[in-house]
Amino acid sequence: MGQYEAKKRPRRMEEEPPQEPPRRPRRRRKRRRRWNPLRLILMILLFLLVLAAIAAGCGYSYYKGEVAGSRRSAAQVEVEIPQGAGTADIAAILKEEGAIGNDLIFRFYSKYRAQADGSYQYGTFTLRPQEGYDSIIGALQEVQQRLETVTVTFPEGYNAFQMGSVLAKAGLCTQGEFITALNEHSFDVDFMDEVSADPLKLVRLEGYLFPDTYEFYADEDVDSVILRMLTNFQNRVCTPENRAAMEKAGYSLEELVTLASIIQKESANVEEMYNVSSVFTNRLAEGSEYPKLESCTTNNFINDYITPYFEGNPSQEVLTAYDTYDRSGFPIGAIANAGADAIDAALHPEKNTLDGTYYFFVTDVEYTHYYGKNYQEHLANIEKAKAVNRAHGIEGLIS
Prior knowledge:
By secondary structure, the protein is mostly helical. The protein has helices at about 35-70, 85-95, 105-115, 135-140, 160-170, 175-185, 220-235, 240-250, 255-265, 270-285, 295-310, 315-320, 340-345, 375-390; strands at about 75-80, 125, 150-155, 215, 360-365, 370. Among the domains are: about 75-140, Endolytic murein transglycosylase (Dna Ligase, domain 1); about 150-235, no CATH class; about 360-399, no CATH class. Helix 10 (about 270-285) packs parallel to helix 13 (about 340-345).
């Protein structure tokens, strides 16, 4: 019998669970860097420092080349330097003629490196620009062949009118030309901006004409003469040490020369200058019981020079401006040109030999100074001075 063969059912394979689609890996978000202003500032500063270093290097290279003359041609240059020309004028002439390339650098080098201001001569000079500033400066300092020289000495304490008389006797200029130039002309010195131009001043540059012995050329004009004296003042008085002492004392340059001129006229010798200076400094001190200088030398200046200058009829404003018995503090300007010792005494009154604080002094005919701490002592000192004067046949006091 035929067997019935059941159809074999295909064996079902176990159904595999459906697979999930592969996940994409998460991208890590990049953190945004926060803006750091400090870092930016530092970068800018660094950039600026680099630029500054490059600029400084280029500037220094330019300066060295300018001073050395390597930027100039080998051709000779002829320049004409007029009488009375200051360093600024000379630098402008040299630049215009092609002897230098930068007038400001020349002025700086002349003053601070070569220290040649005030030593330049006038005349016609043949220069070799390629040899540099030192060669140019040396050539400009050489005396040109011209007329004979005249030696002139101005004693310490001379005023402008007395100096003008000395110059007139030497044949260099008249006293009137000298006074006019002092009042009206401009001069190339660093301190000119510190000089008062108050119309009540008799002579604008009184106090700034350094007393010394000078050798002038017989054909030298009045402006050149004055410039030499002002330059000497600048070199001798306007030193860093004196500037520091002025600042400490609270004086302007005008006040310094004014006080020094009175000290010069009131003192018999250098030692007394410091004593006299201490008396005036005490009177000038804030809150002083005696705020007026009461120096008879200012009245002498009024009588001997101001009154004659105005033909016997000066204005009351001018008289008051100089009268230290009438006004407190400084007079309007100097009454003479002080020497280095009087300048130093004005700046350092503490060098005096007095034992205490004094406000008065009087002098006898022998130039002995008597100092008093108060008015009673001063009256007693006046009698002492009168006694000495009487022994010499002089009644009263001298001033």
